[in-house]
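Support request, please re-run this one:
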Amino acid sequence: AEYMGMAPISTTKNNNSSATSVHILSEERKSGLLRLFNDIDLNNDDVIDINELQMGLRRMGIPSDTAGRDQIMRDADTNKDNKLNRDEFINYIDEQERKLEEIFKQLDKNKDGLIEVQEIIDCLNKFDVKITQKEAKLLLNSMDKDGSLRINWPEWRDYLLLRNVTNLEDLVQ
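Re-run finished. Output below.
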């Protein structure tokens, strides 16, 4: 899908409030998210219903059981009409990306911008999940696009964005 590799969200200082930063979508980023929305909105009615979401996830190669699909819909559908309009979809993706970025930073212990096999093993061990080096390599390989077994931010984001992972505990499950 075209959303892969889109420009990241930019951060800027908000001078009108006490908040130190506000996420602002660049035009390029918003355009990419709108393309993704349109790819999932199969009947072009400017909303994504539960069936379109399920089909869109499948087309993108994202395994999503009914519970996962329903959770995305619950989290994203802020007006509770059982459909996602463009704003709800974009806001959901924006929020998911911010959460994934925080998880990425937590996993990247050596702060080199890459998640490596040992960092995955160490993280899972903290949750009493024993994983062998071979299993960690398989996990990273599923996200890895360049064969390096080192996951950069775009690989991480693109793999997990619509998989409803919002914290380290979700990743372990």
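The first helix runs from residue 27 to 40. The two ends are 26 Å apart (CA to CA).
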